[in-house]
Amino acid sequence: ICRTLRLKNSLAVSGLTEILKVFNDIERGKLRNIDFVEAYSCAQGCVGGSLTVENVYISYNKILKLIENLEFEQIKACPDIREVRKLYSQKYFFIKGKFEPRPLKPLDKDLAKAIKKRKEKEHIYESLPKIDCGACGAPTCLTFAEDVVKGEAKLTDCIFNLPQRFKEPSQDFSELFNKYSFRSQTKSSPKKQTKKGKTIK
Ligand code: SF4
Fold this sequence. Notes:
The chain is mostly helical. It has seven helices and four strands.
């Protein structure tokens, strides 16, 4: 939006860690006179989303070149700039309301339990990829680890642990399959005796 509308006093930022830094700087008054912040949770926007296979910078530069070519060829790129400008003037891209800080909840009211949970949180965090992709809904892997300890998320909510979610049911399924396919085999294919007394299936 910032680039398309060539907005003055605007800032486009991507990646949750960078967004947090920018928001903190705005709150502290270090960054002033910013009318509009365009924030993308994934690095470089959608091209840096989880499960994207191409290098994020190569993809981003390809898109920029594509836009330049379209502009040079005077081919109308989608969406129409006038439409974007109209939506911007209608404050369509603005978040309404004020952000209120949420009080930090302790890991547990009981101090001994809270210490134990803290260690558990660190242990979980160590097992995570630490890439802060945000695909689980938590802004960082550390906050996700905290959510797991608090019982507000499951370890398999991390997309990198997703295969584990299917592992146990698939094991059960394969055990069931082996059990019943063996039974049906023994029922449908009874052993036969040859004339010479040998047993065949
Ligand atoms: S816990 Fe997993 S899904 Fe969540 S931010 Fe970290 S890597 Fe991404």
